Amino acid sequence: MATGPRLEARPEPRRPTASRDAPGALILGAEYRALGVARSLGRHGIRVRVVQDGDDTIASQSRYVERSMRFPESDEARLELLAALALDGLEGWTLFPSGDETAALVARNHRRLAEAFVLTTPPWDVFRWAYDKRLTYRLAASLGLDTPSTWYASGTDDLERLDLAFPAILKPAVKTSFNRLTAAKAWQVDSRAELNARFAEACELIDPDELMIQELVAGGGEDQFSYAALCQEGEVLADIVARRTRQFPPDFGRASTFVESFDAPEIVEPSQQLLREMRFDGLIEVEFKRDSDNRKYQLLDANPRVWGWHTLGAPAGVDFAYLAWRHANGRAVQPARGRPGMRWVRLSTDLPTSVKEILGGRLSARTYARSLIGNVEGAIFARDDPVPGLLEAPLMVRTLVRRLARGNGV
């Protein structure tokens, strides 16, 4: 974490929680992850502004967001806007990037941005080990952690020399733009001919050096797990273990739709070992899949920013966004682990996903209905902040129409 020099000179407030005169937070992004951050901070009296990045704007509808604006497209223009905002009264505010690209922008320009803002993102030399899956897997291999078998090819000629079984998946090592492949997260290929065709298609979207060919780990939603944490130079301050029971799309899951805090001690030590080796500082989610054939937990991804279901933490006893704000601003964070048995749902994507699973015989209607009974944390709807929930459907339709018109997928 980096703290601007003027902020360091400010005295600690006397009140035990933040107040309206405490440094505010500027969230880079306005999708549902950002909405969760805005609510977490706003409920603690912290001022919040949002910079809209891309088509998603739902966070800007929150009662806890006092103002929103658009992010320009180029990185340099974005940095110029942030500098202007600092001069316009936001110096000393805390930056919360909510997406991969904005988090990478902050990490790459860490020193420059730290002169004006408090950062929740580590510098690039730390961040890149979680951002780039090639580096994540290299680090995991050095620690003896299980990962799916992975291959790389610089062109279609290299594909013929790969000794791999099908089905396999094709996925990007980093997410530098939004396109058909990054929208889907991964493409399944069931034959050598399909691999050749899909690889050629993927090369039109991203650099071939950023493509990964990987074995398909067997298992369904009951085998998808995450370890999420707030860290200080690799040491865990607060954490939670969760099972990502349902996701959209059902096969590779660009986003979770139903998540449960869980007790899976098998992934705790490997995750903490990885984070210590990275010396990671800030918020991060480490994803695993338990191979349904051999029951081994395979490390899949690391997301070095707020993740989709981070608001599950608050009812489980770990309010991640607020704790990250406290940590970034040099305030005490008491060690905590999220309680198992809490649930989170994004109904707008969970319902169509589950209907498809029910029609396919992979999920019973009774099991689905029972999962939603009781106290379930909603991703969008909140009693104290109802407008985003009321506007989610029309905003989602508008976003889908725009993406389909551009041919980027949904």
Stretches where pLDDT is under 50 for at least 5 consecutive residues are 1-19
Rg from Cα: 21 Å
* Number of H/I helices: 15
Shape: globular
Distance from first to last alpha carbon: 34 Å
Structural class, by secondary structure, is alpha/beta
How many domains, as an integer?
Answer: 3
The total count of strands amounts to: 17
* CATH-level-2 architecture of the largest domain: 2-Layer Sandwich
Portion in strands: 15-25%
Sheet bearing the most strands, described? Answer: 8 strands, mixed
> Percent helix among the residues?
25-40%
Mean pLDDT: 91
According to CATH, the fold-level topology of the largest domain is: D-amino Acid Aminotransferase, Chain A, domain 1
CATH class of the largest domain: Alpha Beta
Q: Oligomeric state of the chains?
A: single chain
CATH superfamily annotation of the largest domain: ATP-grasp fold, B domain
What's this, in brief?
This protein has helices spanning 5-8, 32-42, 75-90, 100-108, 110-114, 124-131, 133-142, 156-159, 180-184, 192-203, 268-278, 320-328, 347-359, 365-371, 387-406; strands at residues 25-28, 48-52, 67-70, 94-97, 118-119, 150-151, 168-172, 187-189, 211-215, 224-232, 235-248, 255-261, 282-290, 297-303, 336-337, 343-345, 376-378. With 410 residues, it is α/β, with parallel strands linked by helices. The chain has three domains: 5-124, Rossmann fold, CATH 3.40.50; 149-215, Dna Ligase, domain 1, CATH 3.30.1490; 221-403, 2-Layer Sandwich (D-amino Acid Aminotransferase, Chain A, domain 1), CATH 3.30.470.
